[in-house]
From TrEMBL:
Residues 7-144 form the Calcineurin-like phosphoesterase domain. This is Phosphoesterase. Belongs to the metallophosphoesterase superfamily. YfcE family. Transmembrane segments: none annotated. It comes from the Bacteria. It holds the Pfam family Metallophos_2. It comes from Flavobacterium jejuense.
Length: 189
């Protein structure tokens, strides 16, 4: 059975100051938490795979556990710099890592696999970036200017109306970029 794949980052559940810092359109932490849970579950099914690229929750441990129990999907966590309470509930995650290189079956990708480098932080270069490997990140809350020539972008909720992005949505964004293979047309021995 094929599962849908989603990517997201930087929910900052329970973090009152993020409303002001990121100019989020919520009147309270409770409203923010409820709306982000609703938007997550609107797109993500119970069996879908979600790669969360960090800073999931700054809420107290019990509140974080309650929020995580409400979220659909099998969650894979790439740790951010604000995941102290998030990682106190490790059984909710398929795994918790600092960094991950994901391969997604995709007939349109080279060799039928799209490689994606997942890290909380943005990188200028990453393994096989010159071959079209994608890089997804968070942390910047939309404040880092997107590079149209790079197959990377911020999947944080502040950039995507507080929704996770499906693999298909990510693919559309990536393929619209002006990235060029630096070795295209070059004869290599």
């Amino acid at each position: 059975m094929k599962h849908n794949i989603f990517f997201t980052s930087d929910h900052h559940f329970g973090h009152a100051n993020i409303i002001k810092y990121s100019q989020r359109p919520f009147g309270s932490v409770e409203e923010m938490n409820e709306e982000m849970i609703r938007k997550w579950n609107e797109k993500v099914g119970k069996r879908d795979l979600v790669y969360h690229l960090g800073d999931l929750s700054l809420a107290p441990t019990i509140d974080t556990k309650n929020i995580l129990d409400k979220l659909n999907g099998k969650i894979f966590l790439i740790k951010g710099n604000h995941d102290k309470t998030t990682i106190t509930y490790p059984k909710r995650f398929e795994w918790i890592k600092d960094f991950y290189e994901l391969n997604v079956d995709d007939a349109d990708a080279p060799n039928g696999k799209q490689k994606i480098v997942l890290l909380h932080y943005a990188m200028k270069v990453w393994r096989s970036s010159f071959r079209g490997t994608w890089h997804l990140y968070g942390h910047s809350h939309g404040h880092l200017q997107d590079d149209e020539t790079s197959r990377s972008f911020d999947v944080g909720v502040d950039c995507h109306d507080f929704y996770p992005l499906s693999y298909e949505e990510v693919k559309v964004i990536m393929l619209k970029k002006k990235w060029k293979n630096p070795f295209e047309g070059e004869i290599r021995e």
